[in-house]
Design goal:
- It is a single chain.
- It is built from five helices and two strands; from the N terminus they run ββααααα.
- β1 and β2 form a beta hairpin.
- α1 packs antiparallel against α2, α3 runs parallel beside α5 and α4 runs antiparallel to α5.
- The chain is elongated, with a radius of gyration of 18 Å.
- The model has no long low-confidence stretch (mean pLDDT 91).
């Protein structure tokens, strides 16, 4: 089997139900999710420490779920029965967020991305995830999409923020607050 097909040489690509331009909003949305998945893979490679075993397991699950997100967005013709992303995935992320947030010290201000290499990598995942979410919002404004993908990405960026902080905590590294930030976070 050849990896190259030459079918995209004219700037078109196949999606489920047809062909579109490679710069189509649909391709931009699932392409950004694919980019995010690569950064999640990088974070997973960095998390090669026993103290991050739970995070490793979750990141691997997330990689599969991101492929599901991309598949759901690749449908040109609406076929909800074939969607792979459902509301339960966002609920699972919320449970993980609550679990890890309990490990983290309270914060009042924005923090600077960084610290342990895993934390820094997870902050990159967070920002790419936010861009993917914006691309999905753009796509949703012009066509019908699986809204659970958008919800999942919204929760996922929060997850990356929280576990980046957890990676620092578990590594004995203190998050650095943005010194010009007002107090923006409150624990209720």
């Amino acid at each position: 089997m050849n990896i190259y097909t030459r079918t995209g040489d004219e700037g078109q690509t196949s999606v489920i139900g047809g062909r579109v331009s490679k710069d189509d909003a649909r391709v931009e949305a699932y392409g950004t999710i694919d980019e995010l998945n690569s950064f999640v893979g990088q974070a997973l490679a960095i998390a090669n420490n026993e103290s991050f075993a739970d995070i490793q397991e979750q990141l691997l699950m997330i990689q599969h779920e991101l492929f599901d997100c991309g598949a759901d967005l690749a449908f040109v013709a609406l076929d909800e029965s074939k969607y792979k992303v459902h509301a339960e995935l966002a609920v699972q992320l919320e449970q993980w967020i609550d679990q890890y947030e309990a490990e983290n010290p309270p914060i009042e201000r924005f923090i600077l991305p960084g610290g342990h290499p895993l934390a820094a990598s997870l902050h990159v995942c967070r920002t790419v995830c936010r861009r993917a979410e914006r691309r999905v919002v753009t796509l949703g404004a012009i066509t019908t999409i699986n809204i659970n993908v958008r919800k999942y990405l919204n929760r996922l960026s929060d997850y990356f923020f929280v576990i980046a902080r957890t990676a620092n905590v578990r590594s004995g590294i203190t998050d650095i607050e943005y010194i010009r930030s007002q107090k923006v976070f409150r624990r209720d």
